[in-house]
Amino acid sequence: MRPRFLVDTYSQEMHALVERAGTEKSFDVVIASEIDSAPYALLLEGTPRVLEDLELAVSYERFACQRSFVPRARYRLTWWKLSRYVPRLLRRFEGCTVVSDQEVSLVKGAAPEYDALVVVPNGVDLEANTGDFGAPRPDTLIYSGALTYDANFDAMEFFLHDIFPLIKAQRPNVRISITGGYDGVPVSRLPVGDGVELTGYLPDIRPAVAQSWVSVVPLRMGGGTRLKILEAMALGTPVVSTAKGAEGLEVTHEEDILIADAPDDFAQAVLRLLRDDDLRASLSAAGRRLVAERYSWETCARRLEQLLCRVVQRGRDANG
User: 132 lies in a domain?
Assistant: First the structure.
């Protein structure tokens, strides 16, 4: 039995298109991008399949982080269904990728016998993030992420109520830009104004990030690896993050990022960067170097290519 979200979003039109493609062409391998696409890949019998970017952390944390009985029971049921669907699904895929070791643990917990799991982290196009996007401006912070996503809204509610006033008490001119859409979001719960700007969707976020002194990532929930951190580092903007926000990334506190969880600690980390030009320059250089070494598109694509080649070769060997 499929989880309800897969049943509710299933497209008969997509079903027909995939079946037609399977009759018109032959393929070396089929890639299902994220779990929503997996049912369509199953339509192509006899072709090796890879499930790309399986993400379980968001569903698990919706259950694990709930304190109220009714929401916890509802999300626990959702997680129970998903964790039982995944082993059955993976038996029909010759390979699967996840973006972090945290996701590996969750997948292994659900499907301990599955041995074709590979970590392919999120990556950044370094070339696209190289250039002159404007000089960073003192006392400017940025959070890049649509508030329509629960984890982003929670992060900004936490930051604006518990952290930003501590920063503003010592740097009265500090301001923060929050990018991304916010339609349908209870903005009234956020103290907008007095240095807080909601920019809405930006067609090109690079200038806004590059011109900010610090990128803040006070996430307290969610999964995957944070593209907002990698993008900021690629643009040379230092990052202050919670441990949860930096989860899944091979970062080092005080070397290429500052990590703090408590409101006062987070505020002090931001203040250090606002005051110390040398620290900012050091983190900026180290962050971009980290992205170049471990999170460039070329590096991440190489890992995926290696998995695909193995899957294709196994399929050819199995067919003689």
Answer: no
Do residue 118 and residue 194 come from a single domain? no
142 and 90 within one domain: no
Helices in 178-296 by DSSP H: which ranges? 206-210, 227-234, 263-275, 277-294
> Token pair for residue 224?
């995957």
CA distance 55 to 32: 13
**Taking a C-beta distance cutoff of 8 angstroms, is the pair 54, 97 a contact?**
yes
pLDDT in tens, 67-91: 777 777 887 888 888 999 999 999 9
Q: Residue 19: give the domain boundaries.
A: 4-123+298-318
- Dihedral (Cα; 105, 110, 111, 116), 10-degree rounding: -40
Same domain, 146 and 277: yes
Beta bridge partners of 140: 175
pTM: 0.84
Contact status, residue 124 vs residue 295, Cβ threshold 8 Å: yes
pLDDT tens digits along 15-48: 999 999 999 998 999 999 999 999 999 999 889 9
